[in-house]
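Section 5.1 Outputs to date
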Amino acid sequence: MLAKKTSKNQLTLPKKIVREFPDTDYFDVTVQERKIILMPVKITPADITLRGVREKLEKLGITKSDVTEAVKWARKKRP
């Protein structure tokens, strides 16, 4: 399958490829060994993600002070 680069440096993905990713609007683009790699990405609003993290911490019984102590521990300089 071919995809042509336009004068605005855009690529149109062939329909056959797009059908494989029906709910994907964004792709992470990288280059590996001179190959362009597209990885589907799901964009989630930050407030939804943050809410989910807070709910998970609460279910696990992890408090704000637990997190503060964990951050202090992780930032300690080690010999």
